[in-house]
């Protein structure tokens, strides 16, 4: 199954093409405000690198959040436009799932964190299993102090991954069971892996059904008509 994966839930935007879980091409950029300008050239680059056309796709996969409003909307707009143009379904993934899967090692409870601004992060506990992870509690928007309290109250050894650099110094002071790890940002190649699992279970959505997972009101409203009119992909309209 030929899949395009799009990740824009954090400052690290990425695009990947893969056949199944096998990576064919990938492009990555780290810029807090560069999602829109990155996406179309990155998608074009990946198609050229893989030697594919948009019509070759069987599936589009996209991170729906949680994450800051502007980045999420850029990724979802691109995924919806391309999926609708070539007539393929969409698989949605969570940025927390992507971070937790890449970090799945050992016995520690994994706490991925995504900086959602306003002094808050999104997080959820994940339990490592052979070959993957399973979410072991609700996704929440919390302050750094509340995150520390959640981890402390769990009583488990913890691995915190994601954008923990955005947390204030000393937030885990006195919590001796906490270890900081990687990755810092979710990435499109991991989305490819999750997409194959969900596609095998027929967990598809149409372009019209896809919605971002903000978990709170967005910080801003922006004009998406301009973005959609930037000139999508010439090969995507046939």
Overview of the molecule:
Helix content is 30%, strand content 27%. The chain has 238 residues and is α/β, with parallel strands linked by helices. It folds into two domains: 144 residues, ATPase, nucleotide binding domain (Nucleotidyltransferase, domain 5), CATH 3.30.420.40; 85 residues, Nucleotidyltransferase, domain 5, CATH 3.30.420. It is globular. The C terminus is likely disordered.
What are the salient characteristics of this protein?
disordered C terminus; 2 domains; 5-stranded mixed sheet; 30% helix; alpha/beta; 6 helices; Nucleotidyltransferase, domain 5; 238 residues
Tell me roughly what share of residues is in helical segments: 25-40%
Shape: globular
Task: Please give the CATH architecture of the largest domain.
Answer: 2-Layer Sandwich
First CA to last CA: what distance? 20 Å
CATH superfamily of the largest domain, by name, is ATPase, nucleotide binding domain
Overall residue-averaged pLDDT value: 88
pLDDT < 50 runs, ≥5 residues: 220-238
Biggest beta-sheet profile: 5 strands, mixed
User: If strands are numbered along the chain, what order do they take across the biggest sheet?
Assistant: 3-2-1-4-5
Beta-strand proportion:
25-35%
Q: Give me the number of helical elements.
A: 6
Domain module tally: 2
Using only CA atoms, what is the Rg?
18 Å
CATH topology of the largest domain: Nucleotidyltransferase, domain 5
Number of strands: 12
> What string gives the helices and strands in order?
EEEHEHEHEEEEEHEEHH
CATH class of the largest domain: Alpha Beta
The secondary structure category is: alpha/beta
């Amino acid at each position: 199954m030929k899949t395009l994966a799009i990740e824009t839930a954090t400052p690290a935007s990425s695009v990947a093409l893969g056949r199944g879980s096998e990576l064919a091409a990938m492009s990555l950029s780290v810029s807090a405000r560069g999602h829109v300008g990155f996406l179309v050239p990155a998608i074009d680059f990946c198609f050229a690198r893989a030697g594919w056309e948009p019509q070759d796709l069987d599936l589009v996969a996209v991170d729906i959040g949680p994450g800051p409003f502007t980045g999420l909307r850029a990724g979802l707009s691109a995924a919806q436009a391309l999926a609708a143009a070539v007539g393929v379904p969409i698989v949605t993934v969570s940025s927390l799932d992507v971070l937790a899967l890449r970090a799945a090692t050992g016995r520690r409870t994994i706490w991925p964190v995504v900086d959602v601004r306003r002094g808050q992060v999104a997080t959820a506990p994940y339990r490592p299993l052979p070959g993957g992870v399973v979410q072991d509690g609700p996704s929440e928007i919390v302050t750094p102090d509340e995150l520390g309290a959640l981890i402390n109250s769990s009583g488990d050894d913890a691995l915190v991954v994601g954008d923990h650099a955005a947390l204030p110094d000393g937030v885990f002071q006195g919590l001796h069971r906490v270890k900081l790890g990687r990755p810092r940002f979710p990435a499109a190649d991991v989305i490819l892996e999750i997409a194959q699992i969900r596609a095998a279970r027929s967990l598809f959505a149409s372009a019209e059904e896809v919605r971002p997972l903000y978990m709170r009101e967005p910080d801003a409203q922006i004009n998406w008509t301009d973005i959609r009119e930037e000139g999508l992909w010439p090969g995507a309209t046939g």
